[in-house]
């Protein structure tokens, strides 16, 4: 099986709500992630951002760096300015052997705004698309020259959230722009991750495996809560603990020859969802789904 299983530290500690898991040291996250069976971690807010510091820490735990989130503002600045802003992040990822960069456009985004309901998320005009898509494509081309494949992360509360947004991004950019398929975000946005996997399998370069609790999703949508409030309510969980059909999602990716990471990224309140328990559950369920799909 060519794929590898990784995890995001959001299971233990939250980037957008640092008070969640604030008391949990990085060493605990890494040790428990390894104990749960994962081969690598994505970056989080407790990780050193210098390769000479982070590399030995990961090596001590027998873990790889999978990738890390980068939020661009390409609606507000050109690609040269964005590359300059991203340079420390690019240098860290390349120094530690990553092959993809998790990327989302965060200009106008509301996912971190604790009082703004998701119904007020930004929507791109045709003129915005005409500006943004070529810049993302050029950014991806520049990253490719540095050895990283741009993995575009559609995300709740951002300008590229819905299945229609994802389809349009894929249609208006070329293969230098890879897709990060996030099963939880797409389901929450009203899309179908199975259909997206079938339609865009050849462009998928990274996968975030978060599941959805459907009753919670219906409730938070009915109350029109902000994104972070929905997280606190427990809308996300680990693979196999919600409604996402992972065998059906993974099958077209396997058929297309996907050979990257499958990353458990299921932000929850660690006081309600015991991190090691959910990390083990996520790993074991995802490993079972992956064996079935990839052989």
From TrEMBL:
Residue ranges annotated for the Xylose isomerase-like TIM barrel domain, each copy included: 32-274
One family name in Pfam for this protein: AP_endonuc_2
SUPFAM superfamilies: Xylose isomerase-like
Highest taxon, organism lineage: Bacteria
Entry-linked PANTHER family: HYDROXYPYRUVATE ISOMERASE, INOSOSE DEHYDRATASE
Protein name: Myo-inosose-2 dehydratase
């Amino acid at each position: 099986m060519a794929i590898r299983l990784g995890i995001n530290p959001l299971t233990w500690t939250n980037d957008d709500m640092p008070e969640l898991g604030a008391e949990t040291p990085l060493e605990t996250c890494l040790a428990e992630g390894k104990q749960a069976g994962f081969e690598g971690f994505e970056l989080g807010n407790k990780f050193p951002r210098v390769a000479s510091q982070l590399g030995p820490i990961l090596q001590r735990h027998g873990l790889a760096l999978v990738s890390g989130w980068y939020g661009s503002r390409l609606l507000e600045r050109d690609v040269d300015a964005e590359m300059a802003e991203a340079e420390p992040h690019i240098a860290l990822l390349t120094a530690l052997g990553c092959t993809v960069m998790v990327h989302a456009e965060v200009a106008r985004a509301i996912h971190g705004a604790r009082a703004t309901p998701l119904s007020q998320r930004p929507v791109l005009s045709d003129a915005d698309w005409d500006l943004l898509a070529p810049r993302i494509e050029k950014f991806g081309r520049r990253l490719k020259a540095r050895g990283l494949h741009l993995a575009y992360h559609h995300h709740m509360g951002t300008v590229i959230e819905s299945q229609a947004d994802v389809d349009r991004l894929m249609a208006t950019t070329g293969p230098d722009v890879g897709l990060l398929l996030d099963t939880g975000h797409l389901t929450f946005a009203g899309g179908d991750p199975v259909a997206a996997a079938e339609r865009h399998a050849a462009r998928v370069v990274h996968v975030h495996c978060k599941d959805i609790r459907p009753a919670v999703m219906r409730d938070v949508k009915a109350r029109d809560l902000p994104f972070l409030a929905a997280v606190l309510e427990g809308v996300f969980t680990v693979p196999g603990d919600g409604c996402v059909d992972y065998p059906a999602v993974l099958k077209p990716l396997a058929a297309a020859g996907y050979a990257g990471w499958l990353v458990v990224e299921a932000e929850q309140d660690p006081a309600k969802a015991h991190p090691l328990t959910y990390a083990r559950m996520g790993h074991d369920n995802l490993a079972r789904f992956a064996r079935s799909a990839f052989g």
